[in-house]
TrEMBL record:
<dbReference type="GO" id="GO:0005794">
    <property type="term" value="C:Golgi apparatus"/>
</dbReference>
<dbReference type="GO" id="GO:0005783">
    <property type="term" value="C:endoplasmic reticulum"/>
</dbReference>
<feature type="region of interest" description="Disordered">
    <location>
        <begin position="80"/>
        <end position="126"/>
    </location>
</feature>
<feature type="compositionally biased region" description="Acidic residues">
    <location>
        <begin position="94"/>
        <end position="103"/>
    </location>
</feature>
<feature type="compositionally biased region" description="Basic and acidic residues">
    <location>
        <begin position="1"/>
        <end position="19"/>
    </location>
</feature>
<feature type="region of interest" description="Disordered">
    <location>
        <begin position="1"/>
        <end position="63"/>
    </location>
</feature>
<dbReference type="InterPro" id="IPR019308">
    <property type="entry name" value="TMEM214"/>
</dbReference>
<protein>
    <submittedName>
        <fullName>Uncharacterized protein</fullName>
    </submittedName>
</protein>
């Protein structure tokens, strides 16, 4: 139907009874040409109003992704169940549905390609202590020593331990369970842990270098090393009790390096142990029967360097543990093992008697000898299986405790001290080997000789 202007309508025939469509030119000009019904609109629908043309495709894609995720989860659950039962289990994925499962081919439960499983990081080889020790080159070690010249000796000692720590870094804790070894090994075996694997050339190179360090630097190193060992001990004990925190703190690395360095120091400079004994006795963190295996090991290593240092350390550090009310049979056995091993060394008696006094101090002071006498001669009702072992070592230890020039000022002081605790023990109705004091001549001038006759004839 054509549109006409408004002024022409009055002259038109009345065929349409006066009804005609009226349009306005301005609006006519604004009308857009007909759009192609096949072109998409900005919102993704066609101009003909077909908004759901992609709906079925999207729904199929969503269903397909959902089935893939469900299949992956089912596959992971099946794998876990198969590991628990130690039996292979068929995949729950429906291989018959090629369209839904085609994208799952070559996929692991975590969605990663299966061929990546073959590219897993290779496990580090388990290196034994023997293998790691064999790779240490004495020439290389000497070169490292030369690089440290000019630095503080305490820092040099830490680098010395760090060198051996790196040399044994591939030795995992399971290859050197030091706490288990210390607890289950005899004292004789402790003497060879872990230096038996170090070559003579490496040991000599290290020992020569250690001999040039000051006693103060060596004492610092001993305490520093023991602190590291005790921290590892605490972590292992916490892990054994089921503490997650303790288990996390337990290092997976072996401590063999620090034990190697520390053993070399003790064997080459045994006096380093004597220099720190006061701190070991006074500081509570070094006390406790759970730490006895560690200190038994240190005394054995020092004894290999100087037997007199070994007996001195035993009498001052371990023997006093016997007087503790909580001393258990395991601790008593370890204390006895250590002194038995020291006295079993070739020519031990002559070495110890000739060195009974060291730098003005006795290897076996009167206070320690009192503890030994009480353990050797208890009341008949207090005898235990270990009493016979104390009786066996008593004569030699007594000889060392009473060694010295008769009549000297030092011996008179020793006699007075021993007589005082002997009188105390006799008053407690203890069976004591008081004939010991009859071997002291002359008698202390402060005491009348007739007073000693009943004791000597006891």
């Amino acid at each position: 139907m054509e549109s006409v202007d408004l002024h022409e309508t009055t002259n038109a025939n009345h065929v349409d009874h006066g009804w005609q469509k009226v349009s306005y030119p301005k609006r006519q000009r604004k009308t857009k040409p007909n759009a192609d019904p096949n072109l998409p609109r900005p919102n993704g629908t066609l101009t003909n109003g077909s908004a759901g043309v992609f709906h079925s495709l999207e729904q199929q894609s969503d269903d397909r992704r959902r089935r893939i995720v469900e299949a992956q989860r089912a596959y992971a659950a099946a794998a876990i169940d198969a590991d628990a039962k130690h039996k292979p289990k068929r995949s729950v994925i429906d291989d018959s549905d090629d369209d839904d499962g085609s994208d799952l081919d070559g996929l692991k439960p975590n969605g990663k390609p299966a061929d990546e499983e073959k590219k897993a990081k290779p496990k580090k080889p388990k290196v034994t202590v023997v293998e790691a020790a064999a790779k240490i080159d004495p020439t290389d070690l000497s070169a490292y020593f030369a690089e440290w010249n000019g630095e503080q000796q305490e820092i040099q000692m830490q680098k010395f331990a760090d060198y051996y720590g790196k040399a044994f870094q591939l030795v995992v804790a399971g290859q050197f369970p030091w706490l288990k070894l210390f607890r289950e090994s005899t004292v004789a075996k402790l003497a060879d842990i872990p230096l038996s694997h170090i070559s003579d050339a490496v040991y000599k190179t290290s020992a020569d270098w250690i001999s040039q360090r000051s006693l103060e630097a060596l004492g610092f190193f001993v305490l520093w090393s023991l602190d590291i060992i005790l921290e590892d001990l605490a972590a292992q004990q916490a892990g054994a009790k089921g503490s997650k925190k303790g288990a996390q703190q337990t290092s997976l690395k072996s401590k063999v390096g620090i034990f190697v360095a520390l053993a070399m120091v003790f064997q080459r400079k045994p006096d380093a142990l004597i220099s720190v004994l006061p701190k070991l006795r006074e500081n509570s963190k070094y006390q406790g029967q759970d730490k006895l295996p560690i200190f038994a090991w240190t005394i054995v290593q020092a004894s290999k360097g100087d037997l007199a240092v070994g007996l001195y350390s035993w009498a001052h550090l371990l023997l006093p543990v016997l007087s503790s009310k909580n001393c258990n049979p395991q601790s008593r056995d370890l204390i006895l093992q250590l002194v038995e091993w020291i006295l079993s060394v070739s020519k031990a008696r002559s070495i110890l008697v000739n060195n009974a006094v060291r730098k003005g101090e006795r290897l076996v002071p009167p206070s320690s000898f009192e503890i030994l006498m009480r353990a050797t001669f208890p009341a008949s009702s207090s005898r235990v299986k270990a009493t016979e072992r104390f009786e066996a070592i008593y004569p030699t230890v007594k000889e060392v405790a009473l060694a010295g020039a008769h009549g000297s000022k030092a011996m008179r002081q020793v006699a007075l001290q021993m007589f005082a605790f002997a009188i105390k023990a006799a008053g407690e109705s203890m069976l004591l080997h008081l004939t010991t004091f009859c071997s002291l001549h002359p008698f202390p001038p402060a005491l009348p000789a007739p007073f000693l006759y009943p004791l000597c004839s006891y």
